[in-house]
Design goal:
Strand content: 15-25%
Order of helices and strands: HHEEEEHEHHEEEEEEHHEHEEE
Number of helices: 8
Structural class: alpha+beta
Shape: globular
Distance between the termini: 24 Å
């Protein structure tokens, strides 16, 4: 028995109980992000593949933030601006983690701060990852899958992009993970609605909540009208019988329900968040807000999953009182070698 509507109900209960806390905090995040739009130091130094720049919501509230450099999803260093120069900052833990994660003793760039553009150590750092040919340590495999999947979604139009009209949500052209106030990673273990009320499976965690794996915007053309949909993607690096996709969907639903409540909240500046998610386009929140909940992993039989949910009238949820707003439940099957999109739900 799938407990999709029960997950939404319990999520709404938790969010209602702690409404003042999360509304105030998320309003504060967005207020500071907007305030820093013109004050924040500009990151103009190009970072080329295979390195990517990541940020966080709290980081973007600061006027002089630091940015995280990642390779194959692994944090490998920090970039920051100091005295009008971009510096590569390698901490001791970066040095240790890089040697361990990539199983390569040739990573010998000592901890320190180095000018990103022209310092020999920074050049050597970039060359190391550019020329890296080994396999990443298995303990970070999900990070590798996430980075590869993001790169696939970030492709522009073209024959190499299987799922067109979708882009990850970014903050100022940097990858980030949208935070939530919910701890939902154990929801897939829930077998009865009674368990939903236990902290071991699902709880409100304020600023210590989990992040959405990938938040994206999906654009579809229907009768010459372009529609934009916020898309919450829960990603897994493999198809595990212990975490079946139908149960992994619980976490996507919980996070999507939070995004719905955030957007519909005047106190949290929901319209501001809605526009940030849609690339800062000035849009009105539609009367019928649709949020797509997606589970992505290799080895999925998308057609069978869609059929199963449709048979039980669970592919579309309309759980919000006095509202036409809804959640659509969908799947993406990933290529087990490239981790790009292989096929996906027809209604995605």
């Amino acid at each position: 028995m799938l407990l999709y509507n029960e997950v939404v109900k319990q999520t709404l209960n938790l969010l209602h109980l702690h409404k003042d806390e999360w509304e105030t905090r998320y309003n504060g995040y967005l207020t500071k992000i907007k305030k820093n739009e013109n004050k924040q130091v500009k990151f103009e130094t190009p970072v080329k593949k295979p390195l990517f720049v990541y940020t966080t919501v709290s980081n973007e509230t600061k006027t002089n933030p630091k940015w995280y450099l990642r390779f194959m999803g692994q944090n490998v260093g920090i970039l920051l601006k100091k005295d009008n120069e971009i510096l590569l900052c390698l901490r001791q833990k970066d040095y240790d983690n890089n040697r361990d994660a990539f199983k390569d003793d040739t990573f010998d760039i000592e901890p320190g701060d180095y000018r990103w553009d022209d310092c020999p150590e920074a050049i050597k750092f970039r060359d190391f990852f550019k020329n890296y040919g080994g396999k990443k340590h298995k303990k970070n495999h999900e990070h590798t899958v996430e980075s590869a999947f993001l790169s696939d979604l970030e492709k522009k139009k073209g024959k190499n992009k299987k799922l067109k009209g979708i882009q990850p949500v970014e903050i100022r052209k940097k990858r980030f993970q949208m935070p939530t106030p919910l701890k939902a990673s154990n929801l897939y273990k829930v077998t009865s609605k009674e368990l939903l009320s236990l902290d071991d499976y699902f709880k409100y965690a304020a600023q210590y909540g989990g992040g959405i794996d990938i938040l994206a915007r999906r654009r579809n053309k229907k009768q010459s009208v372009t529609q934009s949909f916020i898309t919450v993607i829960e990603l897994k690096d493999k198809h595990d019988k212990k975490e079946p996709p139908e149960k992994v969907m619980y976490q996507a639903i919980a996070y999507a329900t939070f995004i719905h409540e955030l957007i519909r909240s005047n106190a949290a500046d929901g319209i501001g968040w809605y526009n940030l998610f849609l690339d800062n386009k000035k849009r009105k929140i539609p009367d019928e807000l649709v949020i797509k909940c997606v589970v992505a992993m290799p080895g999925l039989n998308v057609v069978a999953l869609d059929k199963e949910l449709g048979k039980n009238n669970l592919n579309v949820l309309m759980p919000f009182n006095n509202s036409k707003d809804k959640l659509e439940l969908l799947f993406i099957n990933l290529d087990d070698k490239t981790y790009g999109v292989k096929d996906y739900s027809e209604k995605l």
